[in-house]
Every structure is written in C-alpha cells, then in structure tokens.
Design brief:
Largest sheet: 10 strands, antiparallel
Strand content: 35-45%
Number of helices: 2
Helix content: under 10%
Number of strands: 67
Structural class: mainly beta
C-alpha cells in the first residue's frame, strides 16, 4: 500500500509540470544540474514520455526530464487556433466559429452610401457572409415656404432628409421695417400718453413708449346736508384737470307733511282749500281764496215822479243783506209848454201842448206822419277789414234809411307752429295767416349754416385688415366735412403658442392670435423638435451570446442597439472525473445547462512502484479524490501574477500515504484547463494541524537517456497562524505536509 501511494504522488508531481508559467518554460528553469551544478537550459519535447519535456545542461550536456517540464497549453483553444504547448503539441483542437443565424449591421447604410451586415461569431470577432445593404435614398420631408419678415429671414419651399443633412433650403433675406409714424398723445389723469413713435406696417415692431397717466389733481369739496327739496352730498374730491369726481348725491329728504283743513271765503273775509305744510321748512300748498266780495246786484235809480217816490241807483248783495238804497220823495208836476210840430215822413206832428217835465202828464194831440218818399240802394258784402251792407232804401225828404252796416269780418286766423332754423334750412317763429285773405304775421329766420367741430370724430373704426374713416362733425346736425381715411391697423401678433405638432426630429409650428381680431398667424417653431426619448431594454449577456441595450423611442418607431457586452463565457462548478482521462463540469450561471468537458492534467506520482495519475483540476489521485477547500484565498506578490481569468482550485486529503500528514494540490483553472501564474503568489488555506510539521514541494525528475524517474522533495517556508496555513509559490504543484522528525 505504501508503495502504491508513493507511485501516485510521483505521477501527480510529473503532471504538475504541465501547468508551469510560460516564462518558466521558455526561460531557464530554477534547477541546478545534478552533475556539474550549472543551470539547466533549453526545452526538447519528449514524446516517448507522456507530456514531458527534456532540459539539458549547457556545460555537461546532460539531459533531464522533470514534472516541471510537462506539456501544458499556453492558452485556451479559440475558434481558429488549437490550445498548444510551447513545444508545439496540440492540447485541444480549435473550436471552430459559432456564427449567429441573425445578421448584425457592421456599417449602417446611409442615404447615398451602401452599408454592410454579416453573421458574427459568438466567441470572437470573426464575421461570415458579409452582405451589402443598399443605399437607403433620401427620406424626404417637405417644408412649406416661410415668408421673410422685417427681422427674420424666410425661405422658399424646400426638402430635407429625415436621415441625413441633405437639404434644398435657400434663404430669403429679411425685409427690414416699413415704418409708419404716429403723432404723440399727451397723457391724462387716467390714461397713458406717448411721444411720437414709429411702427412697422408688416410686424409688431414699435418705438412706442408709454408716458404714465398723470394721476388726478385733487380738489377737495366740503359736504352739503340735503334739505326737503334740495339734494346734499358728503365731502368729495374732483380733479383740476378732468371730470373725475367722488361726488355722490344724497337725495332730498322730502317734506315732513302736516295737513290743514279747508276754510270757505265769505264776502268780506278770505278762505282757503285744504293744504299741506312741512314740519322742517316753509313749504306749503296754502293758497288764499280771496274774500268773495259782495255778490252785488245793481239796481238802477228810480227817479221820483210827480206822483211816485224814487231812489238813487243802489246795490244789494245776493249773499248777504248789504244795500246802498236811498229813497227820493214824489216831485209833483213841473209843466213845460211845447210848441206845435208839423208832421214829417216818419214823424207825427202836434199842436202846441203842455207836459210835465217829470212825468207823462201831457195835453199833447198827435198829427199823423207823412210817410217816406223812398229811393232803393244795392247791397255790398263786407271783407276782413272793411264793412258791408245789404240792399237798403232812403227817403227823398228826410234822412230815413234802412241802411245797416255789416261789420268787417275780421281775419279767419290760422295759427302756424314755429320752425327753428337748421344749418341748411330757414326757420320762423309762430305766426298767423287768414283763411280768407293774404294776411300773415310770418317773419323768416335765415338758415344757421354748419358749425363744424375742430376735433375729428371716428366714423368707421379701422380694423386689422380694413381702413376706417374720421371727419369733423357739425355740432347741430349730421353733416361731416374733411372725411379722412384711417389706415388699416395691421394684425398685432404678440404671443405665439406652440401647436404641439413637433416630432422627435422635426420642429413643429406655433400660432398667435391677433390682439384686435380673430386673425391668426402660424409660423415655424425653431428648436421645438422633441428629440428622441428612448426606453432602454437591457438584454443581459449569456454565456455564449453578447449582451446589449435596445433603445426604442417612446414617441416614434426609431430604435437602435448599443452598449454591447461580451458573452460571459461559462462559469463552471467543480470538475468531476469522467474516468476516461477527461473531466466535466456544469455551468453555474442561471438558465445555462451547458456541461463542459476537458482532458485531465496528466501528472503522475509513483507510489508503491506504480505511477498514480493525479489531476489538479478534478482532484483525482489514483483511486482517491482530493476534496476542494471552500475558503482558500490567493494574493499576488508580483504585479499581474494572478491570471486574468479562471479561479483558484485547492484540494487536499488527510493521510494520503504513510509518512505524510496531508497532501495538497494548488492550481488556477479556466474552462477545465490550467492557467499558469505569471509570478509569485501567496496561498492561504484553513487547516487543523495539531502536531509540528514541515511543508515540501514534490518535483519529479526523469533522466532522458535512462528514463530514470526520481522525486525531489524541496522544503519551502510557510506560516501557520490561528489555523491558517500560508505559503508562496510561482507554479501549480503538489505539496506535502510532513511530520517533523
């Protein structure tokens, strides 16, 4: 049994040589010649001894075969190259390219140039089936023309390409302002003014500057209490410059009415109707009804006669007993003698007789009248101003006549209302005319003529697109003079608002509404393109496929791939022997079930006269299996000593054979193959060791001429503190923990 174990140890030592660093194999091995002591040189393949190399001494030309010179790959196999030893031995065949079925765009096609695409290898940069992508041609976007303004350029209709900077754009220069001069306007108390200024007929350019309103020139007025019939007011202010006022009427109080009953008037005393007076003022509806005076009835006088009393004329009252009656006594006869009278045409005659001067006492005897000697006269009609008469007769002997005046008719008055004169027509005061003649009181009032105001009145307000008019108006009528055109104002577009029609790559438009009318103006909105807003979808790399990020615009269909990451490669778990000189391990990455297989490292250790195979990767030691340390650590001493890929594998077993406390293997593994150290490293392993011990490295040396194998155990320094064993090495190997003798 002891011999068998030693053989296994020797086999493992021999296999360890496979994994020496390239620098160690290519340079001078750190071993002296056992014959002359000089340094061993050179490397020769020794195919007749499995996977070993032969070194020779430059002094004595002796040759040696050692486990430190066993074949090992200088790197993993790639798609195009096998894994080979520095001696030229192929350790693993080339993998061949793993081309993706999908094409990857290598050079994107542009509008005017072709692109290319190909199938990429998942393991290297190789490409297959490189295929041309035809030029895309321009993806034209048509742009409407933009008329130039006073300050901004314009352009004719043009096309641009969505994908490139192709454009048929031609600039149209700015127009410059078309100035309109405006007269100044003095400010008032409440309204702003301005100095003379210019505006542009085409745009909203203006040198207009506001002169602030002056504010009111306040004049204070005392309050006035209201009365029954007159309004009052509180204290108030007015402006010395305008009609501003804080004046507010306090209505008249109205009378505090006291009612009084009526009093009828009498002949000698006044009376009144019912009336009201005010308790606060001298207001009254009292009106005197004068004393009626006597309702006089006049009585003619009655002269006293010779035989009866008489009275003077007197008055009596119809309402009272008032009278002025005075009686005259009877006179008696007062005789008068009358001469005789001859009769006439119309008058009787008489003889001489006596009568009383006061009464009808008479001795009179009548003589009959003669009758008229008539002459006939025609009638005449009266007029408005002259008398007339009917037909009449006169007597040839006397002045008898039937003539009677028909009075002048007077005018048949027709009243006419007055007519005030106007600017263009005469007027007149109220007057009369006669319905029968041409009588009139009419007097003409001449036409006044127009009274045109000095200030102009706007008759038709100008709008943005149509002219207006103004004129001087007559103060008395609707007549106008000096009718003047007011130019159209032009639109005033001040505040432009975006129309929300921009896309990711193309500017949208903006629209302004005229401040004075419903007119609108839509223009380009430079810089309003939204830009792409990409949603990122990360495709994680897998063991065999590259990872990348897909960027897809949330507003449009634009998408691209970027941020590529290399395939992760497989991360294998513990390697297990397949019993046929190979070992396998399953990839530990989530979702990957790949099982990798590689050849075992062929290291032989002689024990009990037999060569015991040993693999540092899967831990095979003859029929035994070395267990992996879970918490082992490695640290670089030399810069870059630890390989850039793979991981440390430390395995061990108690009592591997007689005389050994523990056997350790140390190696760095990647994809089932050894990765050499590039310098010295420190290895730390947790071990429970109670007795004193020493640490040796096992080297297997074989002499080329005789095929003699020998083992060299080299003691190496270490530390053991708090259950942690630490030592240095610059190569993979088999290490034995031996008791101190």
């Amino acid at each position: 049994m002891r011999k068998r174990v030693w053989v296994a140890v020797l086999v493992c030592i021999g296999m360890l040589v496979v994994f020496l660093p390239t620098a160690a194999l290519a340079g001078t091995p750190d071993r002296p010649c056992s014959y002359c002591g000089d340094t061993l040189m050179g490397i020769y393949p020794k195919p007749w001894l499995d996977y070993s190399h032969t070194y020779w001494c430059s002094q004595c030309n002796e040759k040696y075969t050692s486990v430190f010179g066993m074949c090992r790959a200088t790197g993993p196999a790639t798609c195009a190259d096998p894994a080979v030893c520095i001696c030229g031995r192929i350790m693993a065949s080339a993998l061949g390219h793993d081309y993706s079925a999908d094409y990857t765009v290598d050079t994107p096609a542009t509008c005017t140039a072709e692109g290319s695409k190909s199938q990429h290898c998942s393991r290297c940069e190789s490409k297959n089936d490189v295929t041309a992508i035809p030029a895309l041609g321009h993806d034209l976007i048509h742009h409407d023309p933009q008329a130039p303004t006073c300050t901004e350029i314009g352009w004719d209709a043009f096309d641009t390409c969505f994908r490139c900077d192709y454009s048929t754009y031609v600039e149209v220069p700015t127009l410059g302002h078309d100035l309109i001069h405006h007269d100044p306007q003095a400010p008032t108390c409440t309204e702003i003014g301005w100095d003379a200024f210019d505006t542009c007929s085409r745009c909203n350019y203006s040198t207009y500057e506001i002169i602030a309103a002056l504010g009111h020139g306040i004049v204070h007025h005392d309050p006035q209490a209201p009365t029954c019939t007159e309004i009052g007011w509180d204290a108030y202010d007015t402006c010395a410059r305008c009609d501003y006022t804080t004046y507010e009427i306090i209505p008249a109080l109205g009378h505090g009415i006291v009612h009084h009953d009526p009093q009828a008037p009498t002949c000698t005393e006044i009376g009144w109707d019912a009336y009201d007076t005010c308790a606060r003022c001298d207001y009254t509806t009292y009106e005197i009804i004068p004393a009626l005076g006597h309702g006089l009835i006049h009585h003619d006088p009655q002269a006293a006669t010779c035989t009866e009393i008489g009275w003077y004329a007197f008055d009596t009252c119809s309402r009272c007993d008032y009278t002025t009656y005075v009686e005259i006594p009877a006179l008696g006869h007062d005789l008068l003698h009358h001469d005789p009278q001859a009769p006439t045409c119309t008058e009787i005659g008489w003889d001489a007789f006596d009568t009383c001067s006061r009464c009808d006492y008479s001795t009179y005897v009548e003589i009959a009248k003669l009758g008229h000697d008539l002459a006939h006269h025609d009638a005449k009609a009266p007029t408005c101003t002259e008398i007339g008469w009917a037909t009449y007769d006169t007597c040839a002997r006397c002045d008898y006549t039937t003539y009677e005046i028909i009075p002048a008719l007077g005018h048949g008055i027709v009243q006419h209302d007055p007519q005030a004169p106007t600017c263009t027509e005469i007027g007149w005061d109220a007057y009369d005319t006669c319905a029968r003649c041409d009588y009139t009181t009419y007097i003409e009032i001449p036409a006044l003529g127009h009274d045109y105001l000095a200030d102009y009145t706007v008759d038709v307000a100008a709008t943005c697109t149509t002219e207006g008019s103004k004129s001087q108006h007559c103060s008395r009528c609707e007549s106008k003079t000096n009718v003047t055109v007011i130019p159209a104002l032009g639109h005033s577009f001040l505040s432009y608002q975006p129309n929300d029609d921009a896309t990711c790559i193309a500017d949208g438009t903006k629209t302004a509404k005229c401040e004075r009318c419903d007119g609108t103006d839509t223009v380009a909105d430079p810089g309003s393109a939204k830009g792409h807003h990409y949603k990122r979808t990360v495709i994680a790399p897998t063991c065999t496929a590259k990872g990348y990020t897909t960027y897809e615009c949330i507003n449009c269909a634009d998408t691209y791939r970027a941020d590529f990451e290399n395939a992760l490669m497989h991360r294998f778990g513990l390697w297990e022997s397949n019993g046929d000189g190979t070992h396998s391990a399953r990839c530990m990455r989530s979702g990957c079930n790949h099982v990798g297989t590689a050849e075992c490292s062929h290291f032989g250790v002689t024990a009990d006269g037999n060569i015991m195979p040993c693999c540092f990767i899967c831990g095979t030691l003859g029929d035994e299996r070395l267990l992996a340390f879970e918490f082992a650590e490695i640290a670089a001493i030399d810069l870059g000593a630890i390989p850039g890929r793979g991981e440390l594998i430390l395995r061990g077993i108690n009592d591997p054979f007689d005389g050994a406390l523990y056997a350790l293997t140390a190696a760095y593994e990647y994809a089932g193959l050894m990765e050499p150290f590039a310098g010295a490293v420190t290895v730390s392993i947790p071990l429970e060791l109670n007795d004193a011990f020493r640490l040796v490295r096992v080297d297997v040396i074989e002499k080329a001429e005789t095929n003699e194998r020998s083992e060299a155990w080299t003691e190496i320094p270490f530390t053991y503190e708090e259950g942690i064993l630490s030592f240095e090495t610059d190569t993979a190997g088999l290490f034995l923990i031996l008791p101190v003798e």
